[in-house]
Amino acid sequence: MASAQHVPGFHLADGWEEAMDKYFTDLLQNKTLAPAGFVVCARRGQHVYHKAFGMSDISTKTEMPLDAQFRMFSMTKVLTSTIALVLAERGYLDFEAPVAAYLPSFDKEFRVVEVIDNDTESNADSIEYESFLSGKSIPIRYKTTPATQPLLVKHLSSECSGIGYDMWTDFDATLGTSFGKQYGVCQVLRERAHTASGSATGRYSSNSIIDQNATLAEYVDAIAKAGVLACEPGQFSYGLGALVLGRVCEVAYANMMRDALPSEVFAGDGYKRFAAIMDEMIFTPLGMTSACFYVEDGDLRARKVPTLYGATLRDRKNPSEGAEVKPLEECNPVLPTLPLTVHTAHAHGHRLCDSGDTGACMTAEDYSKFYDMLINDGKSADGTEVLSPTVVATLLDGTLAGLDFDTPFGTAFNVGRTHEDSSFSYGWVRQPKSESRPHTNKWAGYANTEGRLYAAAQSYLIFCPQLMASTTGGFTHGASVLKGPTFDFFQRLWM
Question: What angle do CA 211, 212, 214 make, to 5 degrees?
Answer without folding.
Answer: 145
